[in-house]
Automatic annotation (TrEMBL):
It comes from Actinopolymorpha singaporensis. PANTHER family: ABC TRANSPORTER PERMEASE PROTEIN MG189-RELATED (PTHR43744:SF12), ABC TRANSPORTER PERMEASE PROTEIN MG189-RELATED-RELATED (PTHR43744). It comes from the Bacteria. PROSITE patterns: ABC_TM1. Its main location: membrane. This is Carbohydrate ABC transporter membrane protein 2, CUT1 family. The chain crosses the membrane at residues 12-32, 76-97, 109-129, 141-158, 243-264. Residues 72-263 form the ABC transmembrane type-1 domain.
Amino acid sequence: MNGAGSPVARRAVTVMIYLVVLVFVLPFYWMAVLATHDNASIYHFPPPLLPGGNLSANWTRLVEVVPVLRAMGNSILVAVAHTALVLLLASLVGYGFSRFRQAPGARWMWRALLATIFIPGLVGLIPWYVLIARLGWIDTLWPLIIPGAANGFAVFWMRQVITQTVPADLYDAARIDGASDWRTYWTVVLPLIRPGLGALGVWTFMGTWTAFQIPLIVLNSQENFTLPLALANLNTLYGQDTAAVMLGSVISVLPIFVAFLLAAKQFMAGLTAGALKG
């Protein structure tokens, strides 16, 4: 019998998988546990490993210093709106680059787009800030939603997904049926590229949700703070209230888990909907 397929080998692989999962999950579990204890218990040795009864008090102190619910609402608005814009623009532009590769100037435009991926964002930070200030967007949520929606990497990703997923025969069939380019994109391309959209959506949502530098630069009023900025402000204003900070961190992580679970279901649905029999 092949050693790789033996029961002992399978058990060993299973144990290793569980250990790896434990390594990744344990910090989040411990963070959630510490969010239910007071500060004295957190710094006690040995540290607590089971939930405590101080969750309500920690929540009260948290909302007294930081408008957590408003900050979470701002973060949800920014992350959802920005992700939706990125997916729309990236899929449209990627569809254009994939389908009309022989159009005049397409090759040069593609090279120019690839060049933007290798330019560090900090290089254009000052001109970007001047533009945002002239638009009157300082201390608003607009700079967090609109400017980054034209994302070179997202376009590159969607162009590769569409090229590898949608065969040219489908374009020909849609043209024979009288479908316009827009209808082909909406009814033929989108159902087939759901897995790629799901992966890009999760990546964009997580990056937008955890963004700290740009909100720190453009947001001045506490009522406009996103959640990461509000939590950083909490640690500054309220000293070392570790329990409250841990509770805020748990709250900030939960939407990421929810987004991942929703995208995972969409990923599987897209695989079955976009399957082609050749």
